[in-house]
Design goal:
By secondary structure, this protein is of the alpha/beta class. The protein is 47% helix and 17% strand. It is globular and about 60 Å long. The structure holds zinc ion.
């Protein structure tokens, strides 16, 4: 009950601190519709909130969150493609000019992939299937870093998750078309929750660079 009360008090404070012209602003926002300048694919992790990190305002970011900030490859079969549907809405419906994949350190989803037995013991079934999107990247990390500690393996897999998602984005034809027309850019970012530092993937040199 304490948690719920805390949340409701947060809501009351939010209402009290709205700007004086909030009615006009809200009305204008509804009238104009949404025109976000970026879709962000982030993890559901409670410690990584893109709106807070980027000090975003309502309307700035089209947010897509799932376990381990993953984009699945384009698949024709099946019906319940939550992440693909969100992407389709952002790209075809809203014409977002940027898609940012935001990875993060200490990701529980990546941990579940590396330590599959722990997730299984907790009765997880969907998580294992979902994070298997990263299986080949995990094998690559193990092959190229055979002496790495589990922590080092996890950090490498977390950064690789961003690259796999970027690669999978290009399996959607409407994303490829817009990239070719230069109306859509893809970005790979990584947030370290321990240091609150952001890194950006530089595809020209093939690694992540800290943002100053
Ligand atoms: Zn995560």
């Amino acid at each position: 009950m304490e948690t719920i009360e805390h949340m409701l008090n947060g809501y009351r404070a939010f209402r009290e601190n709205m700007p004086d012209d909030h009615q006009e602003r809200l009305h204008a926002m509804v009238e104009a519709g949404q025109h976000p300048k970026a879709a962000v694919i982030a993890c559901s992790d409670s410690r990584v909130d893109p709106a807070l990190v980027f000090r975003a305002e309502p309307g700035d970011i089209f947010m897509i969150r799932n376990v381990a900030n993953l984009v699945p490859p384009m698949e024709e079969e099946g019906t319940f493609h939550g992440t693909s549907a969100s992407l389709e809405f952002a790209v075809l419906g809203l014409d977002v000019p940027n898609i940012i994949v935001l990875g993060h350190a200490h990701c529980g989803g990546i941990h579940a992939m590396i330590r599959g037995e722990e997730a299984e013991q907790k009765g997880c079934k969907f998580v294992q299937g979902w994070v298997s999107i990263l299986s080949s990247a995990h094998r690559r990390v193990l092959a190229t870093m055979p002496d790495a500690t589990i922590e080092e393996t996890q950090r490498a897999c977390e950064r690789n998750a961003v690259l796999v998602s970027l690669e999978n984005l290009t399996t959607f034809p409407w994303i490829r078309e817009r990239m070719a027309a230069k109306t859509l850019k893809l970005h790979g970012w990584f947030f370290d929750i321990e240091t609150a530092q952001l890194e950006i993937y530089n595809s020209k040199v093939g690694h992540f660079e800290t943002v100053e």
